[in-house]
From TrEMBL:
This is Glycine transporter domain-containing protein. It comes from the Bacteria. Keywords: Cell membrane, Membrane, Transmembrane, Transmembrane helix. The chain crosses the membrane at residues 25-43, 63-80, 87-108, 114-135, 147-167, 173-192. The keyword Zinc-finger does not apply. GO terms for cellular component: plasma membrane. Coiled coil: none annotated. It holds the Pfam family Gly_transporter. It is a multi-pass membrane protein. Belongs to the UPF0126 family. It comes from Marinobacter fuscus. Residues 6-78, 90-162 form the Glycine transporter domain. The keyword Glycosyltransferase does not apply.
Amino acid sequence: MLISIYMIAITAEAMSGALAAGRRNMDIFGVVVIAFFTALGGGTVRDILLGNFPVTWTQHPRYIYMTIMGGLVTIVIARFMRHLHQLFLVLDAIGLVAFTVIGCNVALELGYDTVVVVMAGITTGIFGGIIRDIMCNRTPQVLRHELYASVSLVVAFLYLTLLSQGVNENVTLLAAFSLGLLLRMAAIRWRLSLPVFSYSQARWE
């Protein structure tokens, strides 16, 4: 089940990257590159940080083809995207939760401590979006808009807590996905966010 969700997540994130590239008027090659890094960048950064070599996508070429197709399909259907906005938000939330859980699993299999496992999950969940925004010359949205990175943190903690208590893996996945989607959708619906730190040197002088 997790693999199927992972495929959906890769496609959704590739499409979000393609849309971001389109807003910056990039050519087709630029669209494909941004789609690739958005979808697979988080897992790549995670593998490098954890010393998990070879990097996952290098052993699964179909992931590359999926990101390319996601980017190209987005170019074709971009005119209709406004009608699919709500669906796209749900797919993006699914991607966030799926990548977080997969990141945690990779770190667990490598025998890392809990805090490292949590950070691996968060890195996998959000870093693709960070790379996308940096490459598109924007302040990373995952760090300044509705709850996003914090949703990844909550999902990672819940997933690991249930696993440590011996809860059935399918039940654990269902609980993590349900809470993650609920938090993310609520954050979008009611614009929930963490307190913002705004520093002005003149204000404190």
